[in-house]
Amino acid sequence: MIEEHFSEGNSVIHRIDPRIRIICAIVYSAIIAVIGNLSVAFIGLGAAIVFITLAQLDAMHLLRRLLVVNVFVLMFWLVLPFSFSGDTILSVGPLNMTQQGVLYTLMLTLKCNAIILINVGLLSTCGMFNVVHALNHLRVPNKLIHLLFFIFRFSHVMHYEYARLTDTLKIRGFRPRTSMHTYRTYGSIIGTLLIRAYERSEQIHRAMVCRGFKGKYWLLDHFVLRRSDVLAATIMAAGAVIIIILQWKTG
Amino acid sequence: MHISEGVVAAPVLVAGAAAAAAGCAVGLRKMDYQNTPKVAVLSSAFFVASLVHIPIGPTSAHLVLNGLVGILLGWITFPAVLVGLLLQAILFQFGGITTLGVNTVVMAVPAIVCYLLYSRIIRSRYAAGAAIGGFFAGATGILLAVILVALSLLSTGEQFTNVARLFLLAHVPVMVIEGIVTAFIILFLRKIKPELLGGDIR
Asked: How far is A94 from chain B (nearest CA, A)?
């Protein structure tokens, strides 16, 4: 369940220095988030599609992710087109679907998908260990980075523990239903998971003390900024500037 | 529960990021290298628990447990939630970078309110007191989070009034289920590992 499908690959995007990918992901997400115009939103989505195409990711995985995201967007489509006053296109009982409402919802949909695609294309392609390493270079507080590293590392362990616990339920013929028994069982399962986590963390702490941990990770490989990275950064920066100018011109 | 990317207005995003940064600063000051492993491994357990789907009638809802997180981690909830959401953004594309601040506030502020309101009653000598405290911690965590989501939508624009109303309504059953499951978790922990509830980590 906790897998990194998108981090494997050898595309143009995968070869860019993770530090540059992270900065670009933040810049592009921020720009697209403040777009207030439908045509600029299309251009934002276009930029995102360029990145995702260059990253050459597995289409099935990508589509599945987008589907989940758009389930949330669907909720907006059920309500927002009817929440604007303006030129009515369609009347359903007391509800009026207006042109303004539809265009606004379309803009939100485009922005949301664009940011998610940027996220997948630039961030998810890095791999968590590279993200942690890169954030370290980008001056994120040390304690936060430790937390990120540990939580990522042990979410796999805890997921394995959880799978073991649910296996014992299956063996005993447990079927989740809407009943107090189900809720009590889940309560106990999660309680057990928390206790195992707590006990495990004590072992980890002792192991770290034994090895003389003083709050610093020693890295064996380092990022190297190559000429191609600088070129990629320049191209992406130029793209960002173009979107900002278009947004500014169209108001 | 989270706010999708590209929906709320820039001022809301900026305010959320600022509040999240302030909360994380407080939380990180309470966390040292001694308790980092405890905070981290428990957060991983919560991360996994939030992927659990629980049946409610014909549908199901996933657990949030932010009330319980607040009770166990206190102010450290802020950095723990931030990291959890960042992981979700990178690994599952639930939410993203621009909404990281707002979504952290949405989850962590209710957690801290629960910590301040209920951590005493949960340590009560009586099982009934602990169960009631647990129920309210679970329900309050969701209720306040839903209200914060609704407020961020409404401060983006009036057009979201109906969306916010629908969102609130849809979460009433989730609130009840969270309350019940949290109460059972609290009862379980106080029997088997009471020191977890005693504020050992925060």
From this structure: 14
User: Do A116 and A88 belong to one domain?
Assistant: yes
Q: How far is A64 from chain B (nearest CA, A)?
A: 10
Q: B26 to each of A141, A150, B23, B29, how far by Cα in Å?
A: 13, 20, 5, 5
Q: Residues A140-166: pLDDT tens digits?
A: 998 999 899 989 989 999 999 999 999
Give the tokens for residue B74.
């206190």
Residues 142-201 of A with CB under 8 A from B: 143-144, 146-148, 150-155, 157-159, 161-162, 176-178, 180, 182-184, 186-188, 190-198, 200-201
Prediction ipTM score: 0.93
Task: Look at residue B1 and tell me if it is in a domain.
Answer: no
- Rg of chain B (C-alpha set): 16
What domain range includes position A46?
A: 5-134+223-250
Residue B54 belongs to a domain: yes
Residue A217, in any domain of the structure = no
CA–CA distance, A68 with A112 (Å, rounded to integer):
12
Number of domains forming the structure of chain A: 2
Chain B residues in contact with A67 by the CB 8 A cut-off are none
Residue A76 lies in a domain: yes
List the single residue in A82, A108, A195 with the smallest CB-CB distance to B6.
A108
Nearest to A162 among B48, B55, B177 (CB): B48
Q: A70-73 contacts: CB < 8 A, separation 24 or more?
A: A70/A109, A70/A113, A72/B4, A73/A108, A73/A109, A73/A112, A73/A113, A73/B4
**Taking CA atoms, what residue in A is nearest to B38?**
A201
Range of the domain at B54: 10-196
Per-residue pLDDT of chain B (202 residues; tens, 9 = 90+): 778 888 889 999 999 999 999 999 999 999 988 888 889 999 999 989 888 888 887 788 889 999 999 999 999 999 999 999 999 888 887 778 899 999 999 999 999 999 999 999 998 889 999 999 999 999 999 999 999 999 999 999 888 888 898 889 989 999 999 999 999 999 999 999 988 887 767 7
Question: What tokens appear for B51 in the block?
Answer: 């992927």
Looking at residue B104, which CATH number applies to its domain? 1.10.1760.20
